[in-house]
Design brief:
- The chain is mainly beta.
- The chain has one domain: Jelly Rolls (Sandwich), CATH 2.60.120.
- It is built from 1 helix and 13 strands, in the order αβββββββββββββ.
- The strands form 4 sheets. It has a 5-stranded mixed sheet with strand order 1-12-4-8-10, with no helix packed on it.
- Strand 5 and strand 6 form a beta hairpin.
């Protein structure tokens, strides 16, 4: 009889332990991430011997969780690249330069899309066969005058910032006779750049 009671007690203990293990389910919550979103300013807009700003107003209320997935695409037309500086001002932030005196005597072509991202490695150079800066994936590096830019890697200050508001993109022209045109500005948040607001 004692053996039967011991056996029953042991089986009950095993059953209780098994139930406890089933209840201890590990909850894994993945961070909800966004799909790819683009915001575009379409020109052309002239600039000559002045600071010119173009704006993109974003009404979406989203937080940047991965600045390496933020890309800025610019198309410019200008006869002397070294005379043009440009960058951006995020909502409620200070201006950040992307290019300062880059490109030497080469031209910016309206047909060339310059794509800037913090994970790109190519820097705009001074010598190109056709004297036109080609379409490419560029990064924010040191300027032609070896002055450090405001931010490296590019977009690092955007971490945990809200995209809602006015984004300004500025273009400075320092030449006496050259004029330029801003063809387009595209701000891209790649998949996973933004935190999704769950309902």
């Amino acid at each position: 009889m004692k053996n039967i009671l011991k056996t029953i007690g042991l089986l009950m203990l095993i059953a209780v332990t098994a139930c406890s293990k089933d209840d201890e389910v590990e909850k894994i919550v993945e961070e909800a991430k966004s799909e790819r979103i683009e915001y575009v300013y379409n020109g052309p807009r002239d600039f000559l011997n002045t600071s010119t700003y173009v704006n993109i107003t974003i009404t979406d209320d989203e937080i940047i969780i991965d600045p390496t997935k933020v890309t800025l695409q610019i198309r410019l037309k200008h006869d002397k690249a070294i005379d043009v500086d440009y960058g951006y001002i995020a909502p409620e932030a200070e201006e950040k330069f992307i290019a300062v005196g880059l490109g030497g005597n080469n031209k910016y072509s309206a047909n060339s899309t310059l794509s800037f991202n913090s994970v790109n490695t190519e820097i705009i150079g001074d010598n190109y066969p056709n004297q036109t800066i080609p379409t490419g994936n560029y990064t924010s590096g040191t300027s032609f005058f070896n002055n450090p830019l405001h931010e490296a890697p590019l977009f690092k200050s955007l971490l945990n910032k809200n995209i809602k508001g006015v984004w300004s993109f500025f273009f400075y022209e320092f030449g006496d006779t050259q004029s330029g045109q801003i063809q387009s500005v595209k701000l891209i948040f790649e998949e996973g750049a933004l935190q999704v607001n769950e309902i």
